[in-house]
Amino acid sequence: MEENAKKERAPKKNILKNLNAEFHKIVWPDQKELVKNTTAVLAIGIGLGIVIALLDFVLKSGLGLIIK
């Protein structure tokens, strides 16, 4: 069992070579795509923040009327 585990592991000296090879496969977005994605993330984040704030206000007001 131990012999199979040792055979399946990559030698430590190849780890950095493999990591470097995988790093070169990454496709980085261009500036236009980066701006588009950043804008989308910010818009969704702000939108969800507003929705959560409104729900919080409505629930707090509703509970305030019930508890009084």
Tell me briefly what this model is.
The protein has helices spanning 2-8, 12-24, 31-67.
Q: Termini, distance in Å?
A: 70 Å
Count of alpha and pi helical runs: 3
**Structural class category:** mainly alpha
Outline: elongated
Radius of gyration: 26 Å
Please identify the oligomeric state: single chain
Low-confidence stretches: none
Mean pLDDT: 87
- What about the largest sheet? none
Strand fraction band? under 5%
Helix content: over 70%
Number of strands: 0
How would you explain this protein's 3D organization?
The protein is mostly helical. 84% of the residues lie in helices and 0% in strands. It is elongated.
List the helices and strands and how they pair.
Blueprint: H1 2-8, H2 12-24, H3 31-67
Entry keywords:
about 70 residues; mainly alpha; 3 helices; elongated
